[in-house]
């Protein structure tokens, strides 16, 4: 599929480039309090989860190879020892990102989040099974991640404005669902997924029309959007599930490709030499 350039007002935005770091993604629990349509992990939801001891052993095995940990689920805030997980990561000198639906963030009330990013995934402002409207106020910084699909395009701008007003959100992330567990092919669409050509158009229209004060707009490249910044061709991610299975790229799930050991920044991307997990970061220029 032909890639398309994202254009933006260079008097208002500047593209930020950072050196990619090796990242361990840990699906710490299969428990979830939502059943979102087209969730790529829906087939694994259940009661299984890593024990705190297993988690620490896992981190100690890879800590010399990584700089960052992303905690996912299921819903990671249902994991009772999440605060201990974050503290352990910080003690090891690792950055942490918690990817959550935002419904149970009170668990982190007394946790040191100085080296932690909280990403809240939503499907809309007021509609859908996961709207931002239902997320309780949180007294610490969050990044709102808007997962585009066919039926929620119209609420994208409304969600950005709500994120700014209710949460003083400084980082807004645009991405999209790709139901690879159903299609077994990243490029195929379902009734829920927004075709990638349309995804590019929606992202471009948002950048053209957004006039709020959010400081950073993050846009998932999704293998189709490019800028003048060159992408890395080697995969820097490793993924571990509660049952101990390991994969490198999310596309491995659809192909049932599992790895005995994780290798970071060694395997070439398996889709057109472009990593589907990379993103564009636009920082607002302040006068």
Describe the structure.
With 287 residues, this protein is an alpha/beta fold. It has a single domain, classed as Aldolase class I (TIM Barrel, Alpha-Beta Barrel), CATH 3.20.20.70. It has helices at residues 52-62, 82-91, 156-167, 180-183, 196-209, 251-255, and strands at 4-5, 13-16, 23-27, 68-72, 95-100, 116-122, 143-148, 171-176, 216-220, 225-226, 237-240, 246-247, 279-284.
Structural class: alpha/beta
The residue fraction in helices comes out at: 10-25%
Overall pLDDT metric: 91
Beta-strand segment tally? 13
Strand numbers in spatial order across the main sheet = 2-13-9-8-7-6-5-4-3-11-12
Order of helices and strands: EEEHEHEEEHEHHEEEEHE
How would you characterize the largest beta sheet? 11 strands, mixed
Radius of gyration: 18 Å
In the CATH scheme, the class would be: Alpha Beta
Oligomeric organization of the protein chains: single chain
Key attributes of the depicted protein:
287 residues, alpha/beta, TIM Barrel, eleven-stranded mixed β-sheet, two-stranded parallel sheet, 6 helices, 13 strands, 21% strand
Brief characterization of the structure:
By secondary structure, the chain is of the alpha/beta class. Helix content is 20%, strand content 21%.
Q: Which helices and strands occur, and which strands form pairs?
A:
Blueprint lengths: L3 E2 L7 E4 L6 E5 L24 H11 L5 E5 L9 H10 L3 E6 L15 E7 L20 E6 L7 H12 L3 E6 L3 H4 L12 H14 L6 E5 L4 E2 L10 E4 L5 E2 L3 H5 L23 E6 L3
Parallel strand pairs: 1-10, 3-4, 3-11, 4-5, 5-6, 6-7, 7-8, 8-9
Antiparallel strand pairs: 2-13, 9-13, 11-12
